[in-house]
Structures are given as structure tokens and as C-alpha cells.
Amino acid sequence: MSNTNTTVTLNVGGVLHTTTTFTLRKYPDSMLGAMMSGKLPTTVDPQGNIFLDRDGNVFRHILNFLRTSALCIPTDFIEMDLLHAEADYYQIEPLVNLLNQHKEHQATKGTCYFLEIIEVRTGSTATMPTNNSRVKTILSGRKDAILSLPPALIGIDVLEKLQYKDPTEHAELELYGSNIRLKVGEALEGRGWHQTASDFSTSSGFDTKSLHNCLIIEHSYRDRWSMTLVDEETFTVDPEHLSVQTEIFTNYDSANDSYEVWG
After folding, report:
1. How far apart are CA 165 and CA 92, in angstroms?
2. CA-to-CA distance for 186 and 251, rounded, in angstroms?
3. Distance between CA 245 and CA 239 in Å, rounded?
4. Which Gene3D superfamilies has this protein been placed in (predicted)?
5. Most-buried pick from 54, 145, 207, 221 (CB within 10 A)?
6. pLDDT for 136-195, tens place per residue?
7. Which of the two residues, 77 and 224, has the higher pLDDT score?
8. In whole angstroms, what is the distance from residue 153 CA to residue 245 CA?
9. Has this prediction a pTM greater than 0.70?
């Protein structure tokens, strides 16, 4: 074919794509570049379009790369292996290299997990927990992520509470102790977690059931923590849980003259 820039229609596996010879010649050493320069013979369909016996839907991503030199794929794209095979077939080396980099990045990116801590303070002076206010703190997330925290923070009986849950199931756990939300946050940060959000809201109203019709204030804190694990990484149960478990859940069986350890 000549070096002039003209439009051309390709029939790729039954799907028609119209582009320009300039786009197809973007990488002269590729198969498409060789076809446009006349170095490779071409096959045409009954309508005179160049015919390629390849995947017609994925070819749009090949064309987009030729047009932009960038990997333009949807975030939910699931045919990376097929796109890689097509890029290799067309011998577009820059695209093959980019797909390899993308694959390596995805492999190291891993999976992101979350823990959420919600603290609600209610009372006439809700910001002062020692002055006649009530505090309720809830920790929620995957069981295995929760158990990575020590029993001194989340309770010595937490294993008993969560024993029937699959490690990947989500659970909610009420926490107790002064400033426990901040203490858990410090422990999470020390274990490699990152705080991704921290929200605060407040509301107020009068307690009509009270003789003095006093003002009730409610402050809500919501902290969201995240950690990314690569494919083969898992959460490890804090070893203190195992020692506490052995100490608390060891029961003497008088009939068999033996001890039964829960777990």
C-alpha cells in the first residue's frame, strides 16, 4: 500500500473497524504495520475489506492503543489474557510490554481490607466521658482482621464470641474501656493499617422523660482503617489470644480424668 493516509475498513472476526492507514502504520515492525506497507499479503472479504481471523471485540483496544499509545481499558475489564494474546499476535511490542507491567502491578497491588470503629457518646456533656455520659464503641470487619488485635484491646473472650464464624466473615464487636477508639487506632497504625476516613457528627435534644427536661448531646465518631495484602498474605491471630484461650477454656473432665481445651 502507498504511504498516503487513507481510511480503511478491517473485518476482524466478523466485526468491522474503520480507521486510517496512518494509525495501522504506527509501529512499522508490527504485523499491522507490515500489512500496510505491503510487506505482508492481506486477505479480503467479499466486500473488499481486509479480513483478519481474530477476536473482533478485543481489536478495539488494539486500535485505541495505536491511536493513543496508552492502555485505555475499562476498570472492570476481565479479558486481559485475551488482549495480551492479541497484542502478541499483532507483534505490537510496546503494548505487550505495557500489559506485562500492568499484570505485575496488579499482582503486587493485592486486596484491600477494612476495619471500622464507631464510637457514640451521649449525655449532657457528651465530650467529657467522666461527666455522666455513656459511651458505646463498635468494631466491625472481617473476623481474622479483628483477631489480629490483642485481647487487651478487644476482650479476652473474643475468641469464644467469634468461634463459629468463618475467618472471612464480617463481625461486629463491642469494645470497652476508656478512650478505646483511640487506643485501637494506635494499635492498627502500629500494625501497618492506614486511616482512610474519620467522620464526626453531632446532634442534640431534650430528654422529656427527665424531671429536669435536660439537654442530651450525642457525638458520633466513625474511623475507617484499611490494609492491603498481596495474594498469599493473610491476617495472623495475635498470639496472646491463644494463651488466653488455653487458660480460660480448659475444663476438667472428671469422667475421663482429662482436660478438654476449646479450639
Report:
1. 50
2. 35
3. 10
4. Potassium Channel Kv1.1, Chain A (3.30.710.10)
5. 145
6. 999 999 999 999 999 999 998 888 888 878 888 999 999 998 899 999 999 999 999 999
7. 224
8. 15
9. no
